[in-house]
Amino acid sequence: MDCSNVKKIRDVTDQIDYNDTYGGGRGDSMWVSCGQDGDFNELEDKFFEHFDGVTKESWMAKSMCECCKKLKPTGREKVSWLEFYKCLLSKVSETTETFKKINKLIKWHEARA
Rounded CA gap, 31 and 99, in Å? Predict the structure, then answer.
């Protein structure tokens, strides 16, 4: 993965295409995919659900790209959202609202594990 020119989350997901074998994502909600299947863009969905208005998309896109590069969840590998959020957390200052949001998501996933 090339994270050097990433500005939008689509810049991350456009680098990896995969075929979602779970039929629209049913049954795999605990696993991350850095790619996209057709129009479905999981990382973008998470950004707009949890972080839009809290952090800049360009920062989140670069951080997500770096975590995708490190963890390699391309649709075939099994990387949990908990692992992914912990990676994102390591990239942000503890004093920010983004840190608080990510930490809250980690606690939620830990409670479900």
Answer: 21
b/e for 38-53, b at 16 or more Cβ within 10 A?
eeebbbbebbeebbee
What per-residue confidence (pLDDT) applies to 73?
67
Question: How many angstroms separate the CA atoms of 52 and 102, rounded?
Answer: 13
Domain boundaries, the chain: 9-112
CA–CA separation, 108 vs 58, rounded Å?
A: 25
Enumerate residue ranges in the chain where pLDDT < 70.
17-28, 37-38, 73-77
What's the one-letter identity of residue 109? H
Residues 34 and 18: beta-carbon distance below 8 Å: no
